[in-house]
Specification:
Length: 80
């Protein structure tokens, strides 16, 4: 898992059919690297999130293959 902070939204009026409903968010991870992650949770700007990548992210979707390489899997309520 990778920790990051939502810094923006990616708007797309055209999407392939195999991409499920959800938002595409720009997330800044440690080191200042920016990642576009699929968000099924409804996270907001400046929210701290947990991301998984690769086959684990794509394997989240049951019954079909989604072209997702980065997936937000959690929202961090508090960092201790």
């Amino acid at each position: 898992m990778i920790k990051g902070r939502v810094i923006g939204r990616i708007w797309s009026t055209k999407r392939i059919e195999s991409l499920p409903q959800g938002a595409l968010l720009e997330v800044e991870v440690e080191g200042g690297v920016k990642v576009i992650a699929f968000d099924p949770l409804g996270c907001g700007d400046d929210e701290q999130v947990l991301i998984t990548q690769g086959s684990v992210a794509a394997g989240f979707f049951e019954g079909f293959k989604a072209p997702v390489d980065a997936l937000i899997i959690g929202s961090i309520d508090e960092h201790m």
